[in-house]
Each structure stands twice: as structure tokens, then as C-alpha cells.
């Protein structure tokens, strides 16, 4: 496969590796906890255990730093993971087998859960879109008790592959375009784009708007990336001007640029792209930017005074 296929595979493997590590941490903490002195299961642990074994269509959430607090939430609320299916891996992993090595888990997740995610989304999974396939896997204790299920699901992974971003709404009802809310800034780490950070911190770029290319191009016919770039020269400035209050970006040595879409993304129905502001050195290297380019909100006008109407002159 070419570089495009390698990129797709790398993203999926990174996602599988991360969620696999998270599952080991979550599982060992969740299912090894003893019951309380009164004999009642800890409420948080019980809630997490029930969430871990959720059916297809369930949405799960957990704090990044406390995965043991996993819980089931409405998909209309921000969530970290959406279950697509529960898959028995079977095959060589019989009753007395050892659990797969970490690299084997990654391969199993990529092979089994990607197909499940594609089916769950109605037959199309944008390989460069915001969703990737992942899984919650049994921990060593569950494995020893005969659990051979992958809890396959859909998630959104940060550029580093080390965190998951919350999403809102059922995945099958969402546009899969890999876009972000205006005002999202991404870290600059050793010359590469990192994870979202507060805009006052050093960052690579700030998203200033999102545009829909399907309003310009035929949704059924992929426009070349060169054609996209040519049109985005016209589409991005208006949204950037609205966001920045018509700020002079060049005076601050900043540039407005945009993402483009691959053919696979376009044919999967992804038509939205980010317009963003960043800075590059003459050699093309990204230069760190600090502070948001968003225009300060205009001060609200004071309410008119409610003075009494003048009295009529006496007669």
C-alpha cells in the first residue's frame, strides 16, 4: 500500500493500542475491587462494570485521568466511546490459551473492529475522518475466566494518539469530517502538531472556522486537492474575518490556510474542512504562536435610562 494506506493503518493501530492500554487499566482496577464491609458492591465500580459490558449503540464516558470511573451516558451528551458490537475472537484463543500479546491485540482490533465500525455506520467509515475503530478488551482476570469478547466501538483520537476527544451525538447521525470547533488550538510538539491546548499556550494553529465544500463542488464527484485549495482561498477569508474581527494577520506574521480532503473521505460523505491560522518560518517549519486571534466581544451598550416623562405645564 502507498503512504495513504499506511497513514490509515497507523491511525487505526494507534487507536487500538491506546484503547487497549486503557482497557487493561480500567479492567484491572474495576473488576479486582472487593465489596464494601457491608457486603454491597461499590457504586462507582458497579456502574463501571455495567458500562464495560454495554450493548451495541451504548455510549460510554470516563475522565481522562480516571478511566476506572467509566459510566454509560446518553449519546446526546459528550462521550468518549460508542459501542458498535461485542465480538468473540475465538479461533486459536481457546479455554486454556494465553491472552494475545499487545501487538497481536492491536492487529485483532484493527481487523475485527474496523469492519464492525464500518457496518455500524451504514457501510462507510472515513479512513481520514474523525472516527476510528477501537475496543475494550478483557483484562487478565476476565480472560482467565473465559471471557474472549472484544467490546468494539468508535472513538475520536487526538493527533498524538494518547487521548480520546469527547464527541456528541450518535456517530451514525454525524458528519465524519475531521473538523473542530472554531477556537480550538493544537499544541506544537517538536515541530509537529500535537493535541488540543489552551490558546494562551504555545500552539501550532488555531481553528477559526469550518466550511462546507459540498456547497461549491458536486458531492458525488471528488474535486482534486488542488481545486479544493483554489476554492478555499475564497471560502476561508470570510469566516476568518468574522472570527478575528478583520484582523491583519500578516502584520503579526500569521497565515490563513486550510485542510483538504482525500478522495476516500469525499466518497464517504465528508465535505467539511477547517480554516486555521498559524505561522511558518521561511524553511516551512511551524513557528509557535501564543494567544488567540479571536476578536474580543464588543462591549454591550448600556441600557437606556428610564427617566420619567416631563410633566405637563400647569394651567
From TrEMBL:
Keywords: Membrane, Transmembrane, Transmembrane helix. The chain crosses the membrane at residues 12-33. The keyword Transmembrane applies. Residues 279-315 are annotated as: Disordered. It comes from the Bacteria. Residues 292-309 have a biased composition (Low complexity). Residues 57-275 form the Septum formation-related domain. InterPro entries: Septum_form. The keyword DNA-binding does not apply. This is Septum formation-related domain-containing protein. It comes from Actinophytocola xinjiangensis.
